[in-house]
Amino acid sequence: MGKNFIWSPDNPEGTLVDITAEEQAEIDAMVAAKPAATPEWKLNRMAEYPSIGDQLDALFKAGAFPDDMAAQIQAVKDKYPKES
After folding, report:
1. 84 domain-assigned
2. Within a domain: 48
3. Following DSSP, what letter does each residue of 1-67 receive, concatenated?
């Protein structure tokens, strides 16, 4: 048996508890599987890029979609026109 520090919102001070080797191995596996933190450059880009909808609309207006996709998009735009 070992000791592990357990914290939760209900227990902000935390508690040192006994855990088995199997429990420690499970904790270690969860920590190892945790995705890496999002890099700062990615967060900065996400905050400043136009929305996906705005990007797709710009591509549509530029004629960058295949004809069948452009027809599907235009059908939706025609079905729900902007109010003037």
Report:
1. no
2. yes
3. -EEEEEEETTEEEEEEEEE-HHHHHHHHHHHHHSPPPPPHHHHHHHHHSPPHHHHHHHHHHTT-S-H
